[in-house]
Design brief:
By secondary structure, the chain is an alpha+beta fold. It has two helices and five strands. It has a five-stranded antiparallel sheet, with helices on one face. The N and C termini lie far apart (52 Å).
Length: 116
C-alpha cells in the first residue's frame, strides 16, 4: 500500500497534467509513459485490456522507490470509495500522458510534412 506522500504525488501529477505542464515521453515499453525531473522520474503504465494502472516514483539511480497501483485482481471485493478515487486518478493520468505523446508525435509529423 502506498503512503500518503505517493497519493499526494499522484494528485499533483494529475493536476499538472490536466494543465498541460507535464512533458510526457513514451518509454521503450508499450503502454508506459515517463516524465523526468532533475533527480527523480515518474512513470505511469497500464496493461492493455485490463483495468491495471501503476505509477512509479524512480530515484536518481533508476530504482523504483515507491509505487501506487490499482489491480482489480488483488482486490476482488467491491471497491471502497477511496480505491475508486485512486483508480480514477491513475486512469486519468495515463490517459493524459497517452494523449500528450500522441499529440506531440502528430505535431512533429505535421511539421516534417510542411517542411518537405
Amino acid at each position: 500500500m502506498a503512503g500518503q506522500g505517493m497519493n499526494e504525488v499522484a494528485t499533483e501529477l494529475l493536476r499538472r497534467s490536466r494543465d498541460g505542464k507535464i512533458a510526457w515521453k513514451q518509454t521503450r515499453r508499450d503502454n508506459e509513459y515517463r516524465v523526468s525531473f532533475p533527480d527523480v522520474s515518474l512513470t505511469i503504465s497500464s496493461q492493455p485490456g485490463l483495468d491495471i494502472y501503476r505509477l512509479d516514483l524512480i530515484n536518481e539511480t533508476g530504482s523504483v522507490t515507491e509505487s501506487l497501483e490499482w489491480n482489480p485482481f488483488y482486490s476482488p471485493t467491491p471497491m471502497p470509495s477511496a480505491d475508486a478515487s485512486q483508480l480514477q486518478t491513475l486512469k486519468e493520468i495515463y490517459g493524459l500522458a497517452e494523449a500528450y505523446v500522441q499529440e506531440e508525435v502528430a505535431q512533429r509529423a505535421l511539421q516534417y510534412l510542411k517542411e518537405t
